[in-house]
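Margin note: ligand = zinc ion.
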Amino acid sequence: MLLIVCPYCGERPEIEFTYGGQAHLARPHQPAQLDDQAWAEFLYMRTNTKGVYAERWRHARGCGRFFNALRDTTTDHFLAFYKTGEAPPERTA
Amino acid sequence: MSRAAGGLRTPSGGRVDRTQRVQFEFDGQPYEGVAGDTLASALLANGVHLTGRSFKYHRPRGILAAGSEEPNALVTVSRDAARVTPNLRATQVELYDGLIAESQNRWPSLKRDFGRINDLLSAFFPSGFYYKTFMWPRKAWKSLYEPVIRRAAGLGRAPTHADPDRYAQRYAHCDVLVVGAGPAGIAAALAAAGSGARVILCDETAEFGGSLLAETSALIDGQTALAWVQQGIASLAKNNRVTLLARTTAFGYFPHNFIGLNQRLSDHLSRPPEGRPRERLWQVRARSVVLATGAIERPLVFPGNDRPGILLAGAAHTYLNRYGVRVGTRAVIVTSGDDAYQAALDLKNAGVEIAAVADLRSEVAGALPDAARLAGIDILPGSTVLGTEGDLRVNAVTVGRVHGGKVQAEQRILCDAVLMSGGYTPSVHLFSQSRGKLKWNDALKAFVPGVSAERERSAGACRGVYDLADVLADGAAAGAAAAGAAAGGGARRFMVDAFKRSSESYLGALPQAQAPSNDKSFVDWQHDVTSRDLDLATREGFQSIEHVKRYTTTGMATDQGKTSNLNAMAIVAKSLDVSIPQVGLTTFRMPYTPVTFGSMAGISRGDLFDPVRTTPTHPWAQARAAVFENVGLWKRARYFPRGGEDMHAAVARECRAVRSACGIFDASTLGKIEVVGPDAAEFMNRLYVNNWSNLSLGRSRYGILLREDGFIYDDGVVARTGPDRFHVTTTTGGAPRVLALMEDYAQTEWPELKVWLTSTTEQWAVIAVQGPQSRRVLETLVEGIDISSAWPHMSVARGRICGVPMLLFRVSFTGELGFEINVPADFGLGVWEAVYTEGQAHGITEYGTETMHVLRAEKGYIIVGQDTDGTVTPDDAGLTWAIGKHKADFVGKRSLERPSMKSAHRKQLVGLRTKDPRTVLEEGAQVAAKSGQKPPMELIGHVTSSYASSVLGHSIALGVIESGRARLGQTLYVPMPDGDLEVEVTSPVFYDPAGARINA
Ligand SMILES: [Zn+2]
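Resulting structure:
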């Protein structure tokens, strides 16, 4: 069970959270202007990163807030937690 | 060579109490052991080696090891019909007075086993036997192969009664978790605790000390090994920051240093105290972990190496020194290193005749072999083993000499025990589970921990450190480092007086003569995999150990190849002429040893298995003997049988009552979400397909929510209850996921919208009053709302009923004139009873979910999740009318424009009428355009809902059919085992298509 740091509540066990998939996928403002290919890309194509991955979590059984995390998928270690809307923190080594 | 029972027990020494005799039963025979015995040591003390039959060939098998790595001696221990535990390793079962154990995998008895014929027919059981033999005909799997294989190859049987015992669970946090309480673990715990850390020390056995419990000669810091253990443990026990857990297996290593421990609390007791938990699951979050899990002695691979009486040398050493049991009277020792000579010396001292030590090394030198020579033990250097003899117990071993690459000069030695030692395999299971990277150590001929993935360190034998002084220092250093103790001061040193331990290991099969013995050389005892099987697998083209493993099943038994994996890899590597790291490494998985379901389930069983949600009228429905159904976690009244009615009769009556007079139904489980804020309408516009801007106060609308991919996600009536307020209802099961989806968009896509979302599902009781008489029933009860026909369908208003504040909907899920009364949940039952009483004069009838389903299906109203399955668009469901015409965007809109979503061949919702009005189709049944097809058939859709309609006098069904709406009037076919059923495609609305009744 992972240990996750909610930016609003602090360190909590994974059972308090739900997973939200890849982060930083903004819904297009005018979907009608996207062609089928571009819309399908938004809808279905996700990266499957081996290494550092930006992903969404929701503190569903806590404050209810969505937030983002950087996780190394090879070790499950988190590198950072940050609020929705913020850019992923710069990583130093 | 007859011997009196008990003659194998030494007169003194070891960790057993000879004054406390313990009676037990094995396979129906009474035996006696002593306090401190395991079942294995007690059986060996009684001269019993034969404890099981092998998995595939049903060969007689004896006890091989002394610990949890035991592959052969699996037993079932039972106290009563409900307390039957199969597949326990006899080496780990602590003896108690009255213990009843049985061997497994034999029929009719251990000594006369019918399945032994498999051994004689073994030419027909090569690698991949199951794959090769039982592929065809497929039908024979179910009727013939599987039952026979299951019975022949089964391990123990599960108990037939529910488990009556209690299993506890707890969470724990610590600075340092030390796994394994041998010399390294104890030294680590002492060092960590000494620096003030909170420490948990666990060990899978009953007593702390590990290998030191069988150590009779070594001195640590001037005291005996045992005294050092006892002093160390006593000091840890006094420290209130230290938790000592014996009989506790660390079975799983999960991310972020989360470790599962399984503590056995009462299985070792003759009469467990009432109420004591049987096991406790510890879920430990450790700041740092020290793995001190030791090493497992490696068996040797030679023909006939599986006969009862053939043990690991270290196991024989443990049985002698820890349990005071001689495993035989005349032993041959086969070894690749020095350590087995310690066993030889101790056994000889205890009166066991050592017929010879067959050493695989051509040069045998060193302190221990010299001591053995001095003691008069015959050493045969450059040896190999060519075969063994004996039916239910080994009685001879044939030793060969390897000379110039050739095997010659055979020598047959009589004996009743063969003790083998191929060096050690570090127990890296937990390290591997923690995703640490293993590295191959050529000198040790073993994989050892390389780079850690977690805050964890291995210490002692589990990382290939074998010499006692080094092990203790390694443990102390790991414990101090894990506790974050200051590096200054230098490492703790231990003064150890003992024979220097060697680390010479052997890998793979022993050399054999040109014409080798026909007997099998086992690699994996528990799954009956031989060296020949592995060779065959490589000849057939399997090159990765992961593939060989699956093909031969080596290492895939319940012991996960604890004694076999490295030999298997070595044999495969040799056969392919590559190095062992090139063959690859199999992955270790949790659990280290099997964990009971009870431990995992804990208190989550029976009433506590899952929460139960009940509606406000639940007690009323219970008093009426309603039949309930589970809908998610909800208990919903399905129907209310009267006077012995079955479901069919009750539902028919309830349906007629609603259509002819009035029915009352508890709809409280409907999900309800309050959407509030200045941007509530904009939020709803962006989310739902409908236009909400033009929904005026006091009106409601049927809303549809899509996923972004354009498929129906949920539906429900949405009311505007304020300029900035919507009362959104969802399906019963969909409420949490709809709220989660709303939150997702509100928080992450449109954070600029001022909107707040609140689940109000459990705040409202919802009482549906439906039927032509419903207005009459409510007229006298409703205060503050004119519910005459001037108040049209889909109206909403606040008022009171029975003095209680109410949100009243004029809505219908039945197609009749209807109302839904929303009152605060606490008033639900009272209002329900008042309405029910008032309704008596108008023929009011309570109805359940089954009737609700029939009534809505008669009207062609869909149920999301039953008539839709995540691939249904609004148009597929005939709901295009609900979509806001001039909306630029809503969730899912863009997807509806994709070509495949507009195809004329999509499956569309239609009605289906059977030719025979009495036939009720099976929900889920497939539909074909052509009759009389044989599989594989061409199918064009399936039945989603199907009921007998008492009101219409015929069965009705809904289904999704390719181009369904273009097929109205066509005859289609529902293929069933007895032949095709003819159905006609109709409109999905079977009842009152004009909708006159709903607007009455
Ligand atoms: Zn939070």
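Chain A touches chain B at residues 1-3, 13, 18, 20, 26-27, 30-32, 34, 36, 39-40, 43, 56, 58, 60, 64-66, 74-77, 84-85 (CB under 8 Å).
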